[in-house]
Specification:
By secondary structure, the protein is mostly helical. It has helices at 2-9, 12-46, 66-94, 109-121; strands at 57-59, 62-64. The chain contains 4 helices and 2 strands, in the order ααββαα. α2 (12-46) crosses α3 (66-94).
Length: 122
């Protein structure tokens, strides 16, 4: 069982996935910093400095703090848009993807057998 686990863990896909998770976490921190420190203040400036986190609605003893949810949705939308733009820029920097033509296929097994049969008849 240990050998099977080692073979599984050392497959290229698992290693690639681990590297992607680590790079993704670091990239997430960069994007969060960009959004928190640059983009959100700009959006807040255009919205008149509105901060939704304190908005709430009370019904009896229950208090519904919907402002934090609204602020989280706005933050998510900004982060998603920034990631979308960064990925578009990376895609443009890479250039167009090369279209590879499929490798020419050789004769099928039946065609080979037919060729052998025909050559034996001669």
């Amino acid at each position: 069982m240990l050998k099977e686990f080692k073979a599984f863990a050392m497959k290229g896909n698992v290693i690639d996935l681990a590297v992607a998770v680590v790079i993704g976490a670091a990239f997430g921190k960069i994007v969060s910093s960009l959004v928190d420190n640059l983009i959100t203040p700009l959006v807040g400036m255009f919205m008149g400095g509105v901060d939704f986190t304190d908005f709430s609605y009370a019904v009896g003893d229950a208090v519904f703090g919907y402002g934090a949810f609204v602020q989280s949705v706005i933050d998510f939308t900004i982060v998603a848009f920034v990631i979308f733009m960064v990925i578009k820029l990376i895609g443009r920097a890479k250039g167009p993807a090369e279209i590879k033509e499929p490798a020419p296929q050789g004769p099928t097994q039946i065609e080979l057998l037919m060729q052998i049969r025909d050559s034996l008849k001669r």
